[in-house]
Design a protein that fits this description.
Helices cover 25% and strands 19% of the residues. The chain has helices spanning 52-67, 96-101, 129-132, 156-171, 192-204; strands at residues 25-32, 41-44, 47-50, 71-78, 82-89, 121-124, 183-188. Helix 1 (52-67) packs antiparallel against helix 4 (156-171). The protein is globular, with a radius of gyration of 17 Å. The chain has a five-stranded antiparallel sheet. It has a two-stranded antiparallel ribbon with strand order 2-3.
Length: 218
């Protein structure tokens, strides 16, 4: 999967003031349960054991690729009270190069995955025009439907909203108390080095559960 990132995404800052979250890029996403309640299972000896709700969280994450044809999923993990995953947007109607070059060139230092607190940028689960739709990456494309083409209006928030809603509907059939936090965390992956750190962080998450910022005892 690493070859996908070589030379393709060159984004200078993790804090993107003018970034369109429908743009073609890989995104690191974290979605937490409300109050960090461990609905999804537990970890024993560094291995995650999924509950019935955890299995649904896993199932519907994978279904995002079927629901949205230009979503490409990469590393992900269901943890006791949250989900980590890399979502790639590969929309043929999006001119991602235009968006990348319009990204803020602020002097902010890149976040370090080894320090989980600053790696995330927080987004509302509902579409946030201030955070998501600031930069248009489409140049009069979309075929005969023009701006009415639904592919031009897909973005990260829509994918996550679908996932959270689908999970909630099914999970509440098993546990009526289930709910997500109203927001989610996202981080635009800047380059191959950034990707490798995040992939390692996801893979090692169960082994380092008690050190995790989301840790909660059952």
């Amino acid at each position: 999967m690493v070859d996908r990132y070589k030379g393709k995404y060159r984004i200078p800052s993790a804090r993107l003031k003018n970034w369109d979250y429908g743009s073609n890029a890989p995104y690191f996403v974290t979605i937490c349960t409300d109050n960090k309640i461990c609905f999804f299972g537990n970890i024993k000896e560094g291995k995650m054991y999924l509950s019935d709700l955890g299995q649904l969280a896993n199932k519907y994450w994978l279904e995002m690729e079927q629901k949205f044809p230009f979503v490409v999923l990469d590393h992900f993990i269901v943890m006791p009270n949250h989900v980590h995953g890399i979502i790639n947007i590969d929309n043929p109607l999006s001119d991602s190069r235009d968006a990348i070059y319009r990204v803020s060139n602020s002097a902010d230092n890149p976040d370090d995955v080894d320090n989980p607190d600053p790696i995330y940028r927080v987004s509302n689960s509902a579409d946030n025009p201030d955070a998501i739709n600031r930069v248009s990456t489409v140049r009069n494309i979309g075929g005969v439907t023009g701006n009415n083409n639904p592919m031009l209006h897909e973005n990260l928030s829509r994918f996550i909203n679908w996932y959270k809603g689908r999970c909630s509907f099914e999970m509440r059939k098993i546990n009526t108390k289930f709910s997500w936090q109203p927001r989610f965390h996202e981080h635009v992956i800047r380059n191959e080095e950034d990707y490798l750190k995040i992939a390692e962080y996801i893979q090692n998450n169960p082994r380092k559960w008690q050190e995790d910022k989301y840790y909660a005892s059952i």
